[in-house]
Design goal:
By secondary structure, the chain is α/β, with parallel strands linked by helices. It is built from six helices and nine strands, in the order βαβαββαββααβββα.
Length: 231
């Protein structure tokens, strides 16, 4: 019996590198299925992706996230995630929600930012479907519009609002799989599968007291424990 790994692509920004490792640890510890985690680093894309940095771009992965289907060979399904997340559930439970009638599935937030800046002083820009693209379960064979050339020239809104897809091909995921910290109403942890520190987390000086800070710190401690115990 063949068991292909869950293919997970994570947006990477060297300014907050620790978040990548903490997220990966939180997934690895809970997954009941094999996983394959690939950071999407601009450094690794230079041979085929060249997009000038947009002044409105807040992270290195603002646009490169949409290369996920290309990096997956436009084959099967893949999961894209921002790095500023931790997973509190078995990622296989999210993977089982794949519905082949859709090209893309995501949590469909109705979010209006209250602040003008977010982590590291970056501008916080309001737009429709904000944060929909922060976690995408993608049917790669149905996302062939997302070639490196298209992703390099399309506008930010065209990409993040999924204007390259018919709306009928966008499916909804349960809200528990992308809980926006300090935006969504607080819930008991048993009702949350994924925490998303979208405006900043306790890994940044100005966000030490953010919601669910202790949960991120505990995941960080568990990720680093094995290294510390070897010293």
């Amino acid at each position: 019996m063949r068991a292909d790994p869950i293919r997970i692509f994570v947006g990477y920004d060297p300014r907050v590198e620790v978040t990548l490792h903490v997220l990966a640890g939180s997934i690895l510890r809970r997954s009941s299925l094999p996983i394959a985690i690939t950071p999407i680093s601009l450094q690794h894309l230079k041979s085929f992706f060249d997009r000038e940095r947009d002044p409105k771009q807040s992270t290195d992965f603002s646009f490169s996230r949409f290369l996920t289907p290309f990096l997956a060979g436009f084959r099967g399904w893949a999961l894209y995630m921002d790095c500023d997340m931790i997973v509190l559930d078995d990622i296989a439970n999210l993977w089982r929600l794949r519905d082949p009638t859709y090209a893309l599935m995501c949590v469909q937030h109705d979010q209006t930012p209250r602040e003008s800046t977010k982590f590291l002083g970056e501008a916080q820009l309001p737009y429709a479907r904000k944060n929909w693209s922060s976690l995408m379960l993608m049917n790669c064979e149905a996302c062939t519009a997302l070639t490196p050339d298209y992703v390099a020239r399309a506008s930010g809104l065209e990409l993040h609002q999924f204007k390259w897809l018919d709306d009928s091909l966008i499916g909804a995921l349960p809200a528990r799989w992308n809980h926006l910290v300090d935006y969504d109403p607080p819930r008991d942890l048993e009702d949350i599968s994924l925490l998303h520190y979208t405006i900043g987390g306790p890994y940044l000086k100005n966000y030490q007291a953010c919601g669910y800070a202790d949960e991120w710190r505990e995941e960080c401690r568990r990720t680093m424990f094995s290294v510390e115990s070897m010293r």
